[in-house]
Amino acid sequence: MRARGRIRVAGTVAGLVGLWGLIGAGGCSMFQSEQSARGQKLYAHYCMHCHGEHGRQNEGFNWSSMTVPKPKDLSNKSEMGTFKDEDIFNTISRDMKDTSPGGDKIGDDEFAVPTMPTFKYTLSEEEIWSIVGFVRSLHGMKLEFNVEGRKKELEAAEKAAQQKYEEAKRVAEEAEKKANDEAEKKGVEVDDNAYAKEMQAMVQAKKEFDQASEAFKNFTTRPGKGVNIARPDLTMKPDAEAKLAEVGKRLYVNKYGCNGCHKIGDEGGRVGPALDRAGFRLNPTWVYRWLRNPQAMKPDTRMPSLGLNDTDAKAVSLYLKTLRAPKPEKPIEKIEG
After folding, report:
1. N or C terminus of the chain with fewer C-beta within 10 Å?
2. What is the pTM of this model?
3. What end-to-end distance do the CA atoms of the chain give, in Å?
């Protein structure tokens, strides 16, 4: 959105001033409209099969297949209005917790429903905020969090940290050169302590710059983008494999809530394929890499990356390897969604 005569120049300037006035008046609403459209698109792709198009219970095709607690009624203003924007954001972007007895410690204010996946490792913070904004619209409220302001704040912090680092680097290099010159004049070894303070300041400034850059990157860029997972070493003794598979069985339900989307036998969701014959159909090495970063293997998949570490991914992969149900007499019904 982004001359030949004095009158024409003046007219051009006046036109630009008028245009920028319109943008200034409507810029915020334009951004909010764009953000809302993005949130609706992401919600439809990742959330609608469980929460429904309008956020109502038993509206999504997967809702009836899920365990208790069922997905929350996002259209219920009396309940959803009690949550802050940050509460909804933290529910969508969190680390998954092992809810097994003796598993992870879970605080009173922490959301720990395994069948509700995290999108912390799949979407950028900006994208998650757009989903929060759309969820707010489902119960007649508006997002209060200033997403664009936060983005500008992080960008400014990155630039300031970069300038600080570049200045600290210049000072450290000058101090080092001065120490070298003085040592050469005197014919002695360079005294590293002479510029140690400047070097320490440069290292600290570089650390702060890296942190600021990472914060801005996390806000604007999907975390798993361009990250390929190496093939794992799954060779181990049979007893060790069986023991780790048992751990995987627990994690499958109690930490990563895979049963929310996948069916084994008569239990589980209908978003992803049934897994009761995974031991026949799926290679454990492929499963491991898929669990660590699904988007690297299929960018448009609806399955989010759940933040599995190496050990957990191996455990779940080996558990799925044990699933070898008989071939069904009738073809399994395919769910479109």
Report:
1. N
2. 0.84
3. 38
